[in-house]
Input
Amino acid sequence: MAEVTRVPIQPIAKGSLTKLWVGVIIAVLIGAGIAWAALPKAFSVTEVTAGTGAVPIDGDVAFIKYKGTLDDGTVFDEASSSPFPPGIFPDGVPMLVEKGAVVDGFYEGLKQMQKGGTYELFIPAELAYGDAPPPGSDIPPGANLNFEVELVDFMSQADAERRIQMLQQMMPPQGADAAQPPQP
Output
């Protein structure tokens, strides 16, 4: 009968088991780091300068100053001054805080801002325009949007409409009849 060759088992060198576990832990950490780096950046609102008071709610009109850029730093939109005469409305561009009035990410960001604060807003493509940016815009399909936003002030939509009516009453009438001086 043939005999099976015996192979002696060597004892594990002192410290080898520790080195093995350290290697496994390092491999797991490297894998987790690579996976984390590969994740797409999520929607975020970062406070640059603290504001005060309440935040806008659905139906409010927010007056903002902003600059919108792409990930490469290209400016695609910028607005800072009010289109209205001073004194009737706060400085800044009016934006209705309502779902569908602006892109979803901007809408969510506005609801987290306080009056007088400045913020950096990152909107991933799926909360911006996705693969269908506005025709003629500088925004490519699938672009993430970055904004620097100052929330100057906000008010209810009813208050804004009342002020618009005041502004319309203060303006002189337009048209052919308005150009003719009154006849004695």
User: Anything to note?
Assistant: The mean pLDDT is 84. The first strand starts at residue 44 and ends at 49. The helical segments are 16-38, 104-110, 157-170, 176-179. Residues 21 and 27 are 10 Å apart (CA to CA).
